[in-house]
Amino acid sequence: MKYFGTDGIRRIANTELTPEFVYKIAKAGAYVLTKHVKEGNNPKIIIGRDTRISGTLIESALTAGFLSSGANVELVGVVPTPAMAYITKKTNADMSVVISASHNTFEYNGIKFFSKKGTKISDEIENEIEEAIDSGIALSKQINHHEIGVSKIREDLIDDYFNFVVNIFKEDIKKYNRDDFVVGIDTANGATFEIAERIFKELGIKYKIINNRPNGININQNCGSTHLEGLKKYVIDNNLSMGIAYDGDGDRCLTVNEKGEEVNGDIIIAIIADYMKKNNKLEKNKIVATVMSNIGLNKYAENNNLQLVQTKVGDRYVLEEMLNNGGNLGGEQSGHIILSDFNLTGDGIVTSLMTIKILLEARKKFSELCNIVTIYPQTLINVKVKDFDMDKYPEISELIRKIERNLSGEGRVLIRKSGTEPLIRVMIEGKDKDYIEESAKTIAKLIEEKMG
Fold this sequence. Notes:
The chain is α/β, with parallel strands linked by helices. The chain contains 15 helices and 19 strands. It has helices at 19-35, 55-67, 81-90, 123-135, 137-140, 158-176, 195-203, 229-237, 265-278, 295-303, 315-325, 348-362, 366-370, 394-407, 433-451; strands at residues 4-5, 8-12, 44-49, 72-78, 95-99, 108-115, 151-153, 182-186, 206-210, 242-246, 253-256, 262-263, 286-290, 307-311, 329-331, 337-339, 378-384, 411-417, 423-430. The strands form five sheets. A seven-stranded mixed sheet has the order 1-2-6-5-3-4-7, sandwiched between helices. A five-stranded mixed sheet has the order 9-8-10-11-12, with helices on both faces. Helix 10 links the parallel strand 13 and strand 14. 48% of the residues are buried.
């Protein structure tokens, strides 16, 4: 696609993602939406955002585009992406938009569209919006002055999500909670900075919280799920039971055990799968993951008679598989975990509370639960490139084949284009950490020489 990546439209704010471009996106989105809404109705669109300094700028441009197209707008303010997915469905909105660049640094921002079902819009709808942007048809469509949409401030809608999450976990947490269980929370100075603390306080979980003072530019800055070093130290220094790190928009969750060791999405999925299977709640005894999932998760599934289905990278493709072919647990190594019995998108807060519930019921240390799966060494290198056509360079393919032969079936090489940044991602995993790290550097260097 020209504008959409794996997670909406993402650009540097005010230079690439300009107010003018955002206005066009809104006009095009409203134009496409009205074709799918009963004629004569003004569609209702809800807008939420994370804590980036550019959020209100983009919110204003989106609002202007929607209103000038006859759509009504409700502004929720700062809200996690999964909360918006829930609110959209709960309030019977026709569509919602989240303004966020997720785990990226503050200079980036993005636009994610959600359908009335609370799911990310399909590739087909994204294509329609792109065509409407490029053709100019949406901009040329004028409405009468009495048909202009109206906007409302609806920051109260976050309470719907608050009550929803609390009601899922309150009974079990109350039953199994204990005084010596204390959690460290890192909200990445992002969209969960208030709501996560409200939920943990209401549930009675003891916690210490860091990186919950957003200033518009410190979102994801050496904190959150992409920078776990600070949380690891914080857990050890404060003798905490575990640590939880969300990303900027709150749809990811990674954790840290009491030893300060990272617990990634693959391990979290295995822990939750084991619990759900034992309680006869794992639909089809199936896990849905992506091609980036570690070989260790494959081995875990094989050893426990579970079906593991792997999709393209992106939680939207994980959900697509779950909805089309069954399964109520899926996710990514990066911490996008979908528990579709509760919400139809990755939900960092729900994931963290599910993990806490399991840990409290087991009455074990977190590190003991993590032993359920053996994670193979894995290395990932991002290479900035200008040319994405690797078919032009047979020497790259030959190098990859050589390294795969040397792994002897106990590892793999995965090369893919980023869906959110101008990068090629080089990922290798295998038993020999030194070999895979050196091999990844060798591939990355060749790609940079040929395609950079």
